[in-house]
Design a protein that fits this description.
30 strands, mainly beta, 8% helix, 8-stranded antiparallel β-sheet, 361 residues
Amino acid sequence: MQVIALLALCAWGARAEDLASGVRYFNDQRYHVIEADLDSPQVQVRVSAPRGRDGDRVTVSQHAQREGAVVGLNANYFGGPYNVPCGAARGHGAQYENAYGEAVNCETSLGWAGPHGEVFNSAGHETDASFNSAYTEIVTGGGYLLSGGRPRDWNHGKLGAGRDCTAAGLSADRRRFVAVVTQPGTCSGQELQAELLRHGAADAILLDGGGSSKLWIGGRGYVNGEPQDRKPPVTILIFAAGSGSGGGANGACPSGNGLYCGGDGVTGDSGTLFRCASGTLTVVSHCANGCESMPAGVPDRCRGSGPSGRCPSGNGLYCGGDQVGGTAGVLYRCAAGALTEVQRCANNCHFSPPGQPDYCR
């Protein structure tokens, strides 16, 4: 710990800037760090939703721009002719079903749903949508970099100096998401752990590195200098008020603030349901059965969702009574208009702002 602290003091000198309310970017020319406030109603940290083998073969920047994110970075290791993820992956509540397992490198996952998450072993659960189903977002890497606020020496060869690294973690109170992406050839294990600790991470994992390490920021492109532009199937995306695709005439919401299918007067993928607010689009859900455009003045919806208490903001997690049927104090998954029980909450169920998943306290 003394070595880590010394490195932290010596290496510090990063320039900090606000990318949006609740999203900060730090750059010391070697380590690029993103902090996102998971407790802010204006911020969402999500994983790109699966699109199938061919649809997921896009770059980090294409993932981010397609979904209207303000920040994008690479996540899982991947392989095979169709770039399928190594280890468990879940985005917007949907499981990546073509994932494969691999010992050591792809067995430790970071999962979250809003300000609620943890790091856990996921070996053998690569395609198991019921495993830790309270978490709508899951990415997988190799082992702990940090556990309980202390560095862990996982797979030492991948923590040697001179590598390209990507890492992500959560603060002890789970209110802050922290991601680090390095400049090419500058990563060392101790410095990477020091960066995570300095920015408040308590538990963190190492994600895909090398030529996959890419950090994209809206309006400026890639910022970390890695020359390769691979096509990882799984990316971490950060959405914030003031980011997004915009829509309608001059970015306006054509029928006022509300829910719109992509292409229904707003830009974006036609199979995605967006929330338009003050001319800004954020992704609500990638619709498994397509997005249904409704008459003017009536919110669009994912097919199989909508009135009668079913998926009012698209597929996702809802507390019983939060515009869905069911029992108060129980967390449900709503998908294609059907409710399934996820968890009975010991300390009540938290109602999140529209477009963000509810969760057990």
